[in-house]
């Protein structure tokens, strides 16, 4: 067992836990201010968008809005499926089928 | 009495909630497994033992920052403060998720708050917020999905580390597409009014700009903060929308 690695891992664990508990500690005695609660209501929508959009528009780290971007094509299909079915499993199945076919069988 | 204290504030677990948690979690695990496997594979390649890399998944439990730390250590950057501080910056977005869950978490007992906080990751946060929207907050639900994601993350890290020279890199298949696909199903029903669509557009634009020009995961913090502030102002302006 490499003690240096383990001590780095423990440091990472502590640093990460601070980011997770920080808000509860900050607001434990005062409660959350009302204006902040109004803003935070929109965090989920903004957050989901921020997770999805770059992973579809820039899968390789640079902006790629073209028919050669398999993630964008599969994303469009998945978004349409999600809109019509509201079903996670069906959306994943269809989206994955599209991306695997594109990745495996398209020469570009 | 230690046990009673630990679960203080947790409503009696009911089988329905657990079933619901498992049902909602299963699709999302298809997205987590390839990342866990990759984490194990990358860890071994960078010189971690099976135990060390699994230990990292068990204690840190934050995929993106683990990948970055593994890459740093693999390329010889092993300064304690450098790796730990980078991890902290990459994970700062948890503060935002924690704050957004705070109105619900602060009503629970301290031990339960501290336990649930440990389980905050992108996926458990997204599912919990979605559940709140549909049926309201239930700590059992949050505990259930966090526990499931935690178990799947650790088992898949361990398997990846164990079989690291046998399995091909699962991310090269495009299997990483499962997560954005799941998030799309959670996002699209939210885009039902003008405020939400504006938030979507502002967030999409700032996320892409941030991902192009900022390091690490800062684009998520930038996008979520900017878009949430815009949303807050829009609602302040029109009082009939609630």
Q: What does the model show?
A:
The complex is a heterodimer of chains A (108) and B (242). Chain A is an all-alpha fold and 108 residues long. Chain A folds into 2 domains: 1-33; 42-108, no CATH class. Chain A has helices at 3-27, 34-40, 43-57, 70-85, 88-105. In chain A, helix 4 runs antiparallel to helix 5. Chain A starts with a helix and ends with a helix. The mean pLDDT of chain A is 89. Chain B has 242 residues and is an all-alpha fold. Chain B has 2 domains: 14-189, no CATH class; 191-237, no CATH class. Chain B is 74% helix and 0% strand. Chain B has helices at 2-6, 15-45, 50-59, 63-74, 80-90, 93-105, 110-118, 122-135, 139-162, 178-187, 194-213, 218-237. In chain B, 49% of the residues are buried. The model of chain B is unreliable at 1-6 (pLDDT under 50). At the A-B interface, helix 1, helix 2, helix 3, helix 4 and helix 5 of A face helix 2, helix 3, helix 4, helix 5 and helix 6 of B.
Summarize it.
With 108 residues, chain A is an all-alpha fold.
Indicate the radius of gyration of chain B in whole angstroms: 19 Å
Number of domains of chain B: 2
Q: Count up the domains of chain A.
A: 2
Q: What integer is the average pLDDT of chain B?
A: 88
**Most residues in contact, chain pair and counts:** A-B, 73 and 97 residues
Task: Please tell me what the overall shape of chain A is.
Answer: extended
What does the main sheet of chain A amount to?
none
Broad structural category of chain B: mainly alpha
DSSP strand (E) fraction of chain B?
Answer: under 5%
Tell me the major beta sheet of chain B: none
How would you spell out the order of helices and strands of chain B? HHHHHHHHHHHH
**Unreliable stretches of chain A, pLDDT < 50, 5 or more residues?**
none
């Amino acid at each position: 067992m490499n003690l240096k690695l383990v001590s780095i891992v423990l440091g990472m664990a502590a640093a990460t836990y601070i980011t997770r508990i920080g808000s509860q500690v900050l607001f434990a005695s005062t409660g959350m201010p009302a204006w902040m609660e109004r803003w935070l209501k929109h965090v989920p929508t903004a957050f989901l968008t921020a997770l999805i959009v770059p992973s579809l528009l820039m899968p390789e780290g640079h902006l790629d809005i073209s028919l050669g971007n398999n993630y964008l094509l599969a994303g469009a299909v998945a978004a349409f499926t999600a809109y019509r079915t509201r079903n996670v499993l069906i959306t994943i199945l269809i989206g994955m089928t599209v991306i695997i076919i594109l990745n495996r069988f398209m020469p570009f | 009495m230690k046990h009673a204290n630990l679960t203080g504030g947790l409503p009696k677990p009911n089988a329905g909630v657990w079933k619901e948690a498992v049902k909602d979690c299963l699709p999302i695990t298809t997205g987590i497994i390839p990342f866990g496997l990759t984490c194990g594979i990358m860890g071994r390649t960078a010189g971690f033992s099976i135990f060390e890399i699994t230990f990292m998944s068990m204690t840190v439990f934050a995929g993106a920052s683990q990948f970055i730390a593994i890459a740093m250590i693999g390329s010889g950057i092993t300064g304690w403060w450098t790796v730990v501080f980078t991890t902290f910056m990459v994970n700062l977005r948890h503060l935002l998720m924690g704050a957004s869950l705070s109105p619900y978490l602060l009503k629970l007992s301290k031990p339960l708050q501290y336990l649930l906080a440990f389980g905050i990751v992108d996926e458990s946060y997204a599912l919990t917020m979605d559940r709140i929207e549909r049926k309201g907050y239930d700590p059992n639900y949050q505990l259930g999905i966090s526990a499931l994601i935690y178990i799947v993350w650790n088992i898949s890290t361990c398997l990846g580390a164990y079989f690291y020279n046998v399995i091909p890199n699962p991310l090269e298949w495009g299997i990483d597409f499962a997560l954005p696909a799941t998030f799309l199903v959670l996002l699209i029903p939210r885009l039902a009014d003008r405020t939400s669509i504006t938030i979507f557009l502002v967030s999409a634009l700032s996320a892409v700009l941030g991902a192009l020009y900022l390091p690490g995961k800062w684009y998520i913090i930038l996008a979520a903060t900017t878009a949430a502030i815009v949303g807050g102002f829009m609602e302040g302006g029109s009082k009939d929308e609630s």
